[in-house]
Amino acid sequence: MRAAFRTAIPALLSSAAAFRPCRRILRLSPLLLLRSSPLSSSMANHPTPPSSASPSSSSTAAAGATVGLSSSSSSSMEKQFEDFRVQLEESGSVRERIRRVVMEMEGAIRLMHSSLLLVHQSLPAPEVLEKARVQIGVLNDLFGRLAEILRECPGQYYRYHGDWKSETQTVVSLLAFLHWLETGSLLTHEEAEKKLGLNASEFGLDIEDYLIGLCFMSNEMPRYVVNQVTAGDYDCPRKVLKFLTDLHAAFRMLNLRNDFLRKKFDGMKYDLRRVEEVYYDVKIRGLASGETTKDQTTQA
Amino acid sequence: MLYSSCRHLLSSFPMAASKPHRLHQIVGASLLSSSKKPRTMATDSTMKQEFTKYADYLNELNDKRERVVKASRDVTINSKKVIFQVHRISKDNKEEVLAKAENDLAAVTDQYISRLVKELQGTDFWKLRRAYTFAVQEYVEAATLCRFCKTGTLLNLAEINASLLPLSDQSVEPLQINVLDYLLGLADLTGELMRLAIGRISDGEVEYAEKICQFVRDIYRELTLVVPRMDDNSEMKKKMETMLQSVVKIENACFSVHVRGSEYNPLLGSSDPDYSIFGIIMQFL
Fold this sequence. Notes:
The complex is a heterodimer of chains A (300) and B (285).
Chain A: H1 2-28, H2 30-42, H3 57-116, H4 126-151, H5 157-183, H6 189-195, H7 207-231, H8 236-251, H9 260-284, H10 289-299
Helix pairs in contact in A: 3-4, 3-5, 4-5, 5-7, 7-8, 7-9, 8-9
Chain B: H1 4-31, H2 38-87, H3 94-120, H4 129-151, H5 157-164, H6 179-202, H7 206-226, H8 234-268, H9 273-282
Helix pairs in contact in B: 1-2, 2-3, 2-4, 3-4, 4-6, 6-7, 6-8, 7-8, 8-9
């Protein structure tokens, strides 16, 4: 301990001695001091004081030996970065092409969505659904083009996934809603892939995207129920409630992470509650009475 | 390859799920003897069936991600240790310190990177990239720092990737560090080199610091051309700003030694010139 002090004190003394002339010079040049002061706060690591003061001639010789190497290395460095530039340019052009397809996809989605919105205005008519169904073919082609682009860079599906992720989720929600209107059942992941002409082995439908799409579909349900009841279909809330309850129960089987899907799933319960309220309103006023008595007789 | 794990589940699934399915049908049949809506019944049970598949897929993916994160943490910690080892360098112990650093780095590759490779096997590398990108960046930083101190050159991505090839079995696609992670690692390297340069100057090795300065400038210059083309370059843009600061710090330190160091080396005499330089550098920190 004491020995450590004894060695430390001369070092402190001599570094203090070094500071003195240093300050003097800085006082002479306040401009330099100003220039260097902003740096001091951001500097993270302070160098440790040198333990021994040996003449610097040996180190400069060593450094000089390696300095020669760096000139030859800078050309190989240039070459590597040139390669990177080419590679990144290629992936950039892939992304460009993907984005162009996704833009077209957005157009098809808008058309499909707007034609599906008609279901809110009246009781479902087959020609309303037919108009929406046309867009599935368009989307099929567009996904085919995406798959074709991705075929050029195998194994990089998830590198570019972010570019079509949200569009795919919307597509799933529209498809699932349409499918439910047609059949009253849930569109499965496999069926969704089939509808979009996707092949799981090369360009599949990400399961998380599919599930998020289902959550979006659930968001659409309360409005649908309200409008159907207004249009006179009093049995609709019961059907939707059953479907949403099942869907919610199924979602609870999943172990979710704290991510976007989790957030969307958490929102689903509000859709469920809203539909329950509508069902309650209809039922308590005896509007759905015919249906319930029929139910009771069949069950008895 | 994309859904290899998922399809595997699909094939193994019907046997596992047939039981609850049948059970449900029996229960359903007893409750609603003449089921009014057989379709909704079927929907419910197929829905459960389908969701079992999704649950399995998500469980497997999350477990894998968790394991990758754990392996990555080990890579990060131990790569950091290598970097700290390199910073223990001083004029007299260069070979010794670097030999130990290289040893440690080899241990990181053999033990921890290989585990990361094992955990990632069979998955799309891009899917879980967020889980391991920081570990890989840190590893690139450690490896390139070691190489620079040894030879004064930049360790190429191709060389790193070649060294990773023997880590995994022939049957699976080997982990290859992608350009983006390599470049992000290089950006961090310049920060470490700045520290190294300041340390060297305070140790009296001005020429070594100047060599570092030149090297960092080269990297910065090359990166300015590459960064705008990177996939998601917001992170990299931030790093470029920090990098420029590092370059400027080294340049200023070199400058001050050049200009002022020459003024007072003679003042203090040749007894201990290093402390005088150290004093100047301290003004910058």
